[in-house]
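Example A, followed by Example B.
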Amino acid sequence: MLTTRIGTGIIASAMVCCVSALELSELSWMGGCWMLDGKASGSGEMWTEPLGNMLLGIGFMSKQDNVSRYEYMRIEKRESGEIYFVAIPSGQQETEFRLTQHTEKRVVFENPAHDFPQRITYSQIAEGVMQAKAGSKKDDSYKGFELTLLRTDCQSPSR
């Protein structure tokens, strides 16, 4: 509970809410290579194992044996203790999303000021199966897309 004195003696109280502590080591289930289920070969994501304050990732889509889209990503724990997902898609500007929810096998990052997406979610839905969702709020629900990723061999992620 945070109590603040406003003006000449009026006291306002508010609950200070924050996401419970998450150690990046808890995201080790994301580490490795992932191929998009049902998509062209050569499309997917690769994530490092958590190393100190960061995980590094790259996402890519291929079309006719050429990379058509890519995204550099990182999940970082800052000195403040807050955790952010940071994305740089296909050479665009960096965008940050703050961790707002997490469970043992699910993380949700949000940036309501961003046009699309405003929310990014990663979930381990089964052993060797990860789901990535991206969406923006529209009419009291989130609209966007969902990708199912299957763990694959990092030596040949396109096969």
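Example B, a separate protein, is given below in the same form.
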Amino acid sequence: MPLPLVPTLTVIAALLVGLGLGWAMGTRKKENQDRTRELEQRLEQALTSRADYEAEVTEHFQRTAGLLNQLSSDYRAIYQHMAKGADTLCDGTVAMQIPSASNADEETLPEHLLSTMQPLDYAPRKDGDNRGQLSEDFGIDKRSGSESAHC
């Protein structure tokens, strides 16, 4: 084999190895691009599905609010009809007062239930002189030590 042929074969072999590596990397990159495209489509589908769900929930609660308002007005209409009928049919001897929506609850509830004070996590003392239950000497009799030590 002539000496100039060795560098030529080395260059050709390097070229073939380079082409093989380039082709392998190119196909791997295409696979990654396909996977990336698939993941982007799945993400878009998930976002669309979530947006549809949120819109459905919003529509449900709007319809529920409308139905509750309708139910309230229907109840009020039935109550007014019954009150007028009772007044007409009973010659005015039965007085059915139509409650107003603003203060009906406040008139029927006792004053202590209308308090808006925050609940306490302790029992308040009834007067300032008594010790509370959390006091260290609560319930200890301060008479002579021998009389109060019952075990």
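On Example B: Residues 53-90 form one domain.
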